[in-house]
Amino acid sequence: MPSGFASIVGGVEKDFEDLFDPDIAGDGPAALWLENGGVALKFAAIAYGTKGPDVGYDDGGVDVSNLWAAKGTATYVIAGLQGKAMFSSDGPFTNQPSVTATVTLTLLTNGTWTASGGNSFGNVAQPAPTSGTWLTQGGSAGDYDVRFDVVDSGNASRQVINGAPDWTSLANTIAVSLLLPSAPANNANEREANANLRVRVRRRSSGQVVSDTTLTMGVWTTGWQ
Prior knowledge:
Oligomer: single chain
Number of domains: 2
Number of helices: 0
């Protein structure tokens, strides 16, 4: 929907909607004297992106291009995931045959994400929230790609199952897991593995990265003797 305000940029008249990114986070500054339908204009805060050309409209003596992120530059984090520490462990009862631990982050085609864990007994609860929304900028999941960058360390038996080591369409559900595979429990060995995970989501049509989120994963097991 046109904002009702436009500026000549590169010799072409462009509406503000085509010059600034939308206020997805809800904390974009308002230019109180620039109104559309009685509502002050708001776009993404410049902190989420970069400045574009001056547009010739001032707010408090400053061109509003200093307030808002230029179109195609705003990048956010996925709410509820940024800084999350996922963890799962398995410490067996005597005579339990095996131990295993895993944590998994999944991005689903309905625009949501889930964080889950498991061991030989079943599910392992993760820190709240365990689900949320990754698709916040409109369109369908298939309009976006995801990439998981994983830096892992720890026990040599660890495995990373990465569904998107490079840019991969979110038209399908995509997941990444860190796990210690099943191992005999009748020993006193401890295993531990950790990973730093970076999750980037981009809009395929423009290549714009719309979210860039980091979190950690950890798994641990011990046996009995």
